[in-house]
Amino acid sequence: MRRFALALGLLALSLLIGPPVWAQEAVGHVERQKGAASRVVAAGANDLAQGSQVFIGDEIRTGPDARLLIRFDDESALTLGENARLSIDEFVYVKNGGSRQALAIAQGVFRFATGQIGKLRPSDIAFTTPVAAVGIRGTVFLGGELTVGMPPGQPHYGFQVSEGAIEVISPVGSVVLDEPGEGTFLPLTRVAAPTPVRQWTEAEAAEAEAALAF
Fold first, then answer.
1. Res 1: pLDDT
2. What φ, ψ does residue 72 adopt, rounded to 5°?
3. Is 139 exposed, middle or buried (0-12, 13-18, 19+ CB in 10 A)?
4. What pLDDT, in 10s, does the model give residues 109-127?
5. pLDDT score of 77
6. What average pLDDT does range 22-28 have in this prediction?
7. Exposed, middle or buried by CB within 10 Å (0-12, 13-18, 19+), for 176?
C-alpha cells in the first residue's frame, strides 16, 4: 500500500510539473518579425512573436506580406518571406562534434546563413526545397519561387549565393555556386537539372531581395 501511495504521489507530481523536457526541445527563437507567423504542431497552431521559441518538429508558416527571422542556437539564421512554410526536422548542436541540422523549405522565398554547425562540419546540415537539395559549404544563400530568371509564365525556383559556396542538387543534375552573386534556376512543374551557373541580373537579384526585406 505504501508503494502504491508513493507511485500515486510521483504521478501527481509529474502532472504538476508537466511533460518531460525532451517532449519540447527549443532550438532557436524569433529574432525579428513583420506580419503574422505561426508554429504548427500536432496539437494545433501557435502564433509567433519576437522572442518566441521554435522547436524541433515545428512547421513554421508566415502570412501575406510577412517576414520572419529565426536565429538558431548555433547562430545560424533563416529569413522567410511571405506565405512561406518551413519544417524544422532536426537540430542538435554539440560544440565538440555530433551536431546535426535538418531544415525543409516547402514554400516561399528564404535566406539561410550557416552558424557554428556549418563552420565545424558543413556536411552536418541537410537543407531541402521542393526542387533540389542544397549541399552546404559554409555560406549565405537565398532561394525560392520567383517570376524572373526563366521564360515568362513558367513557374520556377531560383538559388543565389552571396557568401561561401553551395551545391544545388536535383535528381538529374547539379551545379556549384561559389562566387558572390552567382545563381541558377529550376522549373517548378517538372524534374530538371539546374540551369548553367551565371551572375544574376539586377532585376533577378532585386526580386529576391525585395521578397525578404523587412
1. 42
2. -85, 165
3. buried
4. 999 999 999 998 999 999 9
5. 98
6. 77
7. middle
pLDDT of residue 66: 98
Query: Long-range contacts made by residues 190-194, C-beta under 8 angstroms, separation at least 24?
Result: 194/132, 194/159, 194/168, 194/170
Cα angle, residue 95 at apex, residues 91 and 97 outer, rounded to 5°: 80
Res 53 pLDDT > 60: yes
**For residues 166 and 179, what is the distance between their CA atoms, to the nearest angstrom?**
10
Which has more pLDDT, 19 or 46? 46
Is residue 34 packed enough to be buried (19+ CB in 10 Å), middle (13-18) or exposed (0-12)?
A: middle
Distance, in Å, from the CA atom of 134 to the CA atom of 136, rounded to the nearest integer, reads 6
For residue 15, CA distances in Å to 9, 41, 44, 55 come to 10, 21, 21, 22
At residue 209, φ and ψ (nearest 5 deg) are -65, -40
* pLDDT for residue 46: 94
Residue type, 97: G
**Per DSSP, what are the bridge partners of residue 2?**
none
